[in-house]
Amino acid sequence: MVASLGRQVLSTGLDLPPRGGETTNRMRILTRYVVIELGKVILLSLTALTLMMIIVGVAREAIQQNLPPAQIFWLIPYILPDALRVAVPVTVLLAATSVFGRMSGDNEVIALKSLGISPMTILWPILTLAFLLSLITVWLNDLAVSWGRSGAQRVVIEAVEEIAYSMLRTQRCYSSSNFAINVKRVEGRRLIRVTLSLKPPGNTPDITITADQAELRSDLGEGLLKIYLFNSTIDVEGQVTAQFPGWYEQEIPLPDATQSGRSSSLPSRLALRAIPKKRAEQKVVIERAEQELAARAAYQMLCGDFDELTSPTWEDTVLGLDAKWEMLHRLRTEPYRRWAAGFSCLCFAWVGAPMAIWLRNRDFLTSFFLCFLPILIVYYPLLIYGVDGAKAGTIPPYSVWVGNIILLGCGVYLARKVVRY
Q1: Taking a C-beta distance cutoff of 8 angstroms, is the pair 90, 49 a contact?
Q2: How far apart are CA 263 and CA 284, in angstroms?
Q3: With 265 labelled, which of 277, 401, 410, 420 sits at a CA distance of 20 to 30 A?
């Protein structure tokens, strides 16, 4: 059966010897037909998949951070880029397998080939569209990990007071990476029989504060969570103990008070434009650390103090240098990772469209899963392996593109089979 596409192209006179103007007009008809079909599937599936991803993302963030209901709504704009960057590649593959699987199942591709038209004519629209969506996905990757995650963290920071009170009422405790607070009970805004544990950065000793009662107040202007304690006792790791009758104020930076902590300096949270500068700064840090380490080692050897070179302090210094190198490897890997993940749209389309034509199955779900299963087994493990190896410095950062290259090679093989047979 020759379906709608066959009827459109035959109505233009393709059964007659083509002329220059007629050929251009027929190509426009084919392109317009394919683009319209792809557009309908992409818009419908992208809307549905994005809504599902937003619901899952907002629910996950709300559960992890114990967000109050009033703050959940403000997460949606910041979750949207993260949802779209995941949904777009899957949507492109779904559209390619759906449209071209139906066209092949209805023998429209055979009708075109019988009229001397190469299947590549109908493949170019999806490849062009996938290329443009790949660029958009790279931008969404950048937007999601920089603006999106920092915005979601800002929502959590602004709600930290309500989050803390909610957990203290239900669990009698609240903690982050830098402090923990335990109470016997909560009466309104008052915390009764409070134990506050502080973990300052570096080698500063831990501090434990006990108080008869306390109250939490977040100061967004100063970026501080202020804890007002009444009749408190401060103990610094058993070394120093001091009592403060009356009210005592303890301030904690709001990012340190959240359960997510400070993470904006991680390479995965930086915008692409900021990574080159951070990479250059990290190289300077490593160079200085290596010079200091070399000078220290030379001094110890000149003094004959070889035991110092095997001491725990020396090992800690070496581990610190390794951590600096790991940060540099992560900074080098991040741009490659985002570009490779973004251009998965093009790779998925390049494999999915010719495979759907070759399978000739009108059931779009069958075509989709037959295309997606090899991608799931091959592409994503290779991407994860490449990212992990590049971050560790064991393989070059451009290795994250191996999965994309393999998919492109499979697409070339399938396209040749479709064109020839």
Answers
A1: yes
A2: 22
A3: 401
